[in-house]
Design goal:
Blueprint lengths: L9 E4 L3 H12 L5 E4 L9 H4 L3 E2 L6 H15 L1 H5 L10 E5 L2 H16 L5 E4 H7 L10 E5 L3 E2 L2 H14 L3 E3 L6 E5 L2 E7 L2 E4 L2 E4 L5 H7 L7 E10 L11 E4 L4 E6 L2 E6 L14 H14 L8 E11 L6 E4 L6 E5 L9 H14 L13 H5 L10
Parallel strand pairs: 1-2, 1-12, 2-8, 4-14, 12-19
Antiparallel strand pairs: 3-7, 4-6, 5-6, 9-10, 10-11, 13-16, 13-17, 14-15, 15-16, 18-19
Helix pairs in contact: 1-7, 1-10, 3-10
The structure holds flavin-adenine dinucleotide.
């Protein structure tokens, strides 16, 4: 049974990329007695461990591009900073656009990205077909490619932040679900676990797809819901080029990237209901594989290596909530990244640390990501959700 401390300065709930990053950044700023609690037997087995590892600049809102402009360089410095290798690769992301509506939206996106210094290339349909001849792409009207988009190892990032945090004094526990949050007189007083209570003034809800349930423990209704998403990986595919990009067939929410000598592919089911089911849906997998082979016929030569399902943590505007929950003094949230949070984990942990210790985020103004935006009707819709 974990030997929990009776008191902490901050309790972070959730040992995925967000919780690990917050705990590390708090300790780096000198915060003592930070405790990280994870309900599963290992860290990083929630959304983070199920994710595709993609990191990109290509978003439709300036705030997401700005988060990437800060977070991706943190991943580039990650090994130097924490001592943990994270298998960074830069194959670039190639978005395939097959509808006039998407062509128009992506033209605006690329202009906005250029205005922020992100050099995404605009490609004609013929240029897409020339660049990746393995694709069956006769219906592709245009594409966007950014060579600075890439991939990193999610488990490495979690492990690196947790170990580096531990060296700075963070106490991190697995097998420790938070089952209650004590609120007294409108302020955080502590958390309950099956192994005992920890008194504290500050709680960080970094529970990813479970953030809504954790919010309820403090009597707060956070608009974050779990939605199942599936992935398949293949056996080695002879003839797959080493520089095969991270391809996203945007209209179908279908994607591929190289994984070892084979491919990893995912496709989002638009009719997937909200829920915590993490079993693989075989019917959707069939639809997915059929569409994948249509787009990339070389897949017919591959065998199935593995498959799994994980949960997106979805908010109404596909942007995260980063900041304080005003109803409960001492309660903070860093969750709801809506399927593209792994890449923003480094900067999100730093920004929430600034909010907790300094009262506001100083590295980047993220007031538009405050929880209050829902009550105030200030939603910031992200279009580039896969
Ligand atoms: C199939 C799939 C593909 C994805 N692909 C990408 C991608 O290519 N690029 C990208 O950037 N993002 C991607 N994502 C999204 C990304 O995985 C998430 O946005 C990110 O990992 C969220 O991190 P998190 O720390 O908030 O959540 P999690 O990693 O889920 O961490 C939350 C943790 O909290 C723990 N927890 C929950 N409740 C409690 C409790 N009561 N007590 C203690 N612990 C608790 C959970 O066990 C979990 O470990 C993908 C997600 C999925 C599912």
């Amino acid at each position: 049974m974990p030997d929990l401390p009776q008191r902490a300065s901050v309790v972070v709930i959730g040992g995925g990329v967000m919780g690990a990053s917050v705990a590390y950044h708090l300790a780096l700023r000198g915060e003592r007695d930070v405790v990280l609690l994870e309900m599963q037997p290992f860290f990083g087995q929630g959304a983070t461990g199920k994710c595709a590892g993609g990191i990109r600049y290509q978003f439709s809102t300036a705030i997401n591009v700005r988060l990437s402009l800060l977070s991706l360089p943190m991943l580039q410095r990650f090994e130097e900073e924490t001592g943990q290798a994270i298998d960074l690769r830069w194959p670039g992301y190639l978005f395939l656009l097959t509808t006039e509506e998407d062509v128009a939206k992506f033209r605006n996106n690329v202009a906005m990205q250029h205005s922020l210094g992100v050099q995404t290339e605009w490609l004609s349909g013929d240029e897409v077909r020339r660049r990746v001849p393995l694709l069956r792409a006769d219906d592709v009207l245009a594409g966007t490619f950014n060579p600075d988009d890439g991939l990193a190892d999610p488990n490495g990032v979690v492990a690196g932040y947790i170990r580096a945090g531990q060296r700075l004094g963070v106490r991190a526990f697995t097998d420790t679900p938070v089952t209650g949050i004590a609120v007294e007189g409108g302020r955080i007083a502590g958390v309950e676990t099956p192994h005992g209570r920890i008194a504290c003034d500050v709680v960080v809800n970094a529970a990813g797809p479970w953030a809504g349930a954790v919010g309820e423990l403090a009597g707060v209704a956070l608009p974050i819901v779990p939605v199942r998403r599936q992935i398949v990986t293949t056996t080695p595919i002879p003839g797959l080029p080493a520089d095969f990009p991270f391809v996203i067939d945007f209209a179908q929410s279908l994607y591929f990237h190289r994984e070892g000598e084979g491919l990893l592919t995912g496709m989002s089911n638009p009719d997937e209901p909200v829920g915590f089911d993490e079993s693989v849906d075989p019917d959707w997998e069939l639809v997915h594989l059929e569409k994948a082979i249509e787009r990339l016929p070389i897949l017919e030569r591959a065998g199935l290596q593995s498959h799994w399902a994980g949960l997106y943590e979805v908010t109404p505007d596909a942007h995260p909530i980063i900041g304080a929950v005003p109803e409960v003094e001492g309660l903070y949230v860093v969750a709801g990244f809506s399927g593209h949070g792994f890449m923003h984990g480094p900067i999100a942990g730093l920004l929430l640390t600034e909010i907790i210790l300094d009262g506001e985020a100083t590295t980047l103004d993220i007031s538009e990501l405050a929880y209050s935006r829902f009550a105030e009707g200030r939603l910031v819709e992200e279009y580039n959700v896969v």
